[in-house]
Amino acid sequence: MKDSEARHHAAETWRRYPAAQQPDWPDEAKLRSVVRQLSLAPPLVFAAECDLLRRRMAAVARGEAMLLQGGDCAETFGQTTAQSIHGKLKTLLQMAVVLTHASALPVVKVGRMAGQYAKPRSSGEERRDGIVLPAYRGDAVNGLEFTAETRQPDPDRLRMMYEHSAITLNLIRALTTGGFADLRRVHTWNQGFVADSRSGERYERLAEEIDRSLAFMHACGVDTRGLDTAEFFVSHEGLLLEYEAALTRAEPGMDRPYATSGHMLWIGERTRDLDGAHVEYFSRVANPIAVKLGPAVSVDVVMGLLDRLDPNREPGRLTFVVRAGADRIRDVLPTLVEKLKAEGAQVCWVSDPMHGNTIAAASGHKTRRFDAILEEVRGFVEVHRELGSHPGGIHVELTGDDVTECVGGSNAILPEQLHQRYETACDPRLNHTQSLDLAFLLAEMYCDHADRAA
Ligand code: TRP
Ligand code: MN
């Protein structure tokens, strides 16, 4: 076997393991044809970019940087629009500025974007008025509309996932390197958003302060190139293994291939079975990766994941994203952190304060209380402070649009208002104002600490 074949083979070993949450593709021949096309298609990201992100994540693991990861719960093909992509990017850049300013740490910016099209489901079927159809598994698999035709999984959607990822990533690359993300334009990212929010005003003041600092540095002759582009990466849940394997590429001279569908991939809470296909696939690729951990996870499973996914204890390789719920985080997290510390593992700890705090409103809308989200983040940060470990950052579901999906925040969305702009294809997202609110409140937690440390 040639070297390149051996490496390619490494991306196929998952087929010998049970793969949870894979769609029932009705047309095997069509699936094989799409997968063949994808395996010949250009990569969306390059190995060197993934390595750079791994180095950035290593800084997070050492406590020298913070991770800000965010975007839709589920991206949809219909929302591959300039406005939607702009909105999320501006929101994330604003949050990054707020966090950098407070923590005095570099913020590693990672979109939950350009590939977040597949969703795991608790039930494979959905029943409405006596009719049972396959559950919506994300635009990569089937459509949201409740008709037999739309809910049928269609392999062509994998090709569309690749195309929509490419289109989205193209605009992200243009915006982050083409002048839009220039730190001297920090004011303009707030334009078009509701300016009358408390956080919007607070942001304006911060932006003025940054303007003055930049002018000062410029006047002193400091070289401020490097501030004109933003470093930005993309990530998604690596759920559909046919898709991920088709986009896995070997690099000459490297012993592991790379997933080239995004810089960072994560394994969900429902697919992180130690004996399952997802852990096997992820163990074979060289990207920085993350695993979601729910409140019921055992220390043994976490140790097992560490051994399978980061046997060489490489800082930056493995991130644990904890989503325990506001009422559980303080019980669940300490044991895990202490055990991994004792093991000498250098993983990144990140808080997902969204998924453990989903509730049903009286209206039937799936929602999240802003205060519960904040409370989980606070618990996460406090546990780490007590243990002397680094609260590495947050992973959140957000949008730049003025949606009404989560309740609370500084412009208090009320439960009665949820129907006004409830647009998510899956879980409720923080809107622009709520995202900025969260950034400012999180910033205060890091700011206190920076003061004490100084
Ligand atoms: N290049 C740096 C970075 O990506 C600084 C920077 C430029 C920046 N534009 C930004 C930081 C926008 C945050 C937001 O971190
Ligand atoms: Mn979600």
How is this fold's topology laid out?
Elements: H1 3-10, H2 28-40, H3 47-61, E1 66-71, H4 82-103, E2 107-111, E3 125-128, E4 131-134, H5 148-151, H6 156-177, H7 198-219, E5 232-237, H8 241-246, E6 248-249, E7 258-259, E8 264-267, H9 277-284, E9 289-293, H10 299-309, E10 318-322, H11 329-342, E11 348-351, E12 359-360, E13 366-367, H12 370-387, E14 393-397, H13 432-453
Parallel strand pairs: 1-2, 1-14, 2-5, 5-8, 8-9, 9-10, 10-11
Antiparallel strand pairs: 3-4, 6-7, 12-13
The chain binds tryptophan and manganese (II) ion.
Provide structural commentary:
This protein has 454 residues and is α/β, with parallel strands linked by helices. It has one domain (3-181, 229-453): Aldolase class I (TIM Barrel, Alpha-Beta Barrel), CATH 3.20.20. It has 13 helices and 14 strands. The chain has helices at 3-10, 28-40, 47-61, 82-103, 148-151, 156-177, 198-219, 241-246, 277-284, 299-309, 329-342, 370-387, 432-453; strands at 66-71, 107-111, 125-128, 131-134, 232-237, 248-249, 258-259, 264-267, 289-293, 318-322, 348-351, 359-360, 366-367, 393-397. It has an 8-stranded parallel β-sheet with strand order 11-10-9-8-5-2-1-14, sandwiched between helices. β3 and β4 form a beta hairpin. The relative contact order is 0.16. The mean pLDDT is 95.
Relevant CATH superfamily? Aldolase class I
Structural class: alpha/beta
Number of strands: 14
- β-strand percent reads 5-15%
Bound molecules: tryptophan, manganese (II) ion
Radius of gyration: 21 Å
- The helix/strand series, from N terminus to C terminus, equals HHHEHEEEHHHEHEEEHEHEHEEEHEH
Backbone shape: globular
The tally of structural domains comes to 1
At the fold tier of CATH, the topology name is TIM Barrel
- By CATH, the architecture is named Alpha-Beta Barrel
Biggest β-sheet: strands ordered side by side in the sheet: 11-10-9-8-5-2-1-14
User: Helix count?
Assistant: 13
Give the low-confidence spans. none
Q: Tell me, what is the CATH class?
A: Alpha Beta
Terminal CA distance: 58 Å
- Mind describing the biggest β-sheet? 8 strands, parallel
| Portion in helices | 40-55%
Q: What number is the mean pLDDT?
A: 95
